[in-house]
Amino acid sequence: MREQSQAKPLVLVAAAALVRSDGRLLLAQRPMGKSMAGLWEFPGGKVEAGETPQGALARELKEELGISVREADMSAFSFASHDYQKFFLLMPVFMIRTWEGEIDAREGQQVAWVSAEEIGSYPAPDADVPLFAQFIDWSKAGHA
């Protein structure tokens, strides 16, 4: 067991696999000035005290992308559990295929709608790489 003084903080982040009717997935690029800048990831953000992961995700998508998402339209897709150098990440990912509003990158990030064939060419944080593979598998299974 790890000693308490060496324990890393647990960071709970909720993320969205936003999928259009044509099966393309929305990726967001981490803006310059943030850790892991330039890498592509599922949009989302940290779960704050008192929030559920779904509630946090709805808030983050409104703040970051200007869209409204109902918790009832979120379905569990996957999760990431990754040991970064300074923290341990736990990230539930929810599939969302219905939302209100137009995607508007409000925090200086680039966004891209990518197909399962294209997703592998986008550099991603270590925690997202296996999620990209799961999206490819999901798409190949005819869910898109």
Overview in brief:
With 144 residues, the protein is an alpha+beta fold.
The total beta strand count reads 7
Specify the helix fraction band. Answer: 10-25%
Summed up, the helix count is 2
Strand content: 25-35%
Rg on CA atoms, Å: 15 Å
Task: Tell me the distance between the termini.
Answer: 43 Å
- Overall pLDDT: 92
**Sheet/helix structural class:** alpha+beta
Order of helices and strands: EEEEHEEEH
> Spans with pLDDT under 50 lasting ≥5 residues?
1-5
Shape: globular
Write the layout of secondary structure elements.
Blueprint: E1 10-18, E2 25-29, E3 40-41, E4 44-46, H1 53-65, E5 74-83, E6 88-96, E7 111-114, H2 129-140
Parallel strand pairs: 1-6
Antiparallel strand pairs: 1-4, 2-3, 2-7, 5-6
Pick out its properties:
4-stranded mixed sheet; alpha+beta; disordered N terminus; 144 residues
What would your notes on this structure say?
By secondary structure, the chain is α+β, with helices and mostly antiparallel strands. It has helices at residues 53-65, 129-140; strands at residues 10-18, 25-29, 40-41, 44-46, 74-83, 88-96, 111-114. The strands form two sheets. It has a four-stranded mixed sheet with strand order 4-1-6-5, with helices on both faces. The chain has a three-stranded antiparallel sheet with strand order 3-2-7, with no helix packed on it. It starts with 9 loop residues before the first strand and ends with a helix. The relative contact order is 0.24. Mean pLDDT is 92; it is low at 1-5.
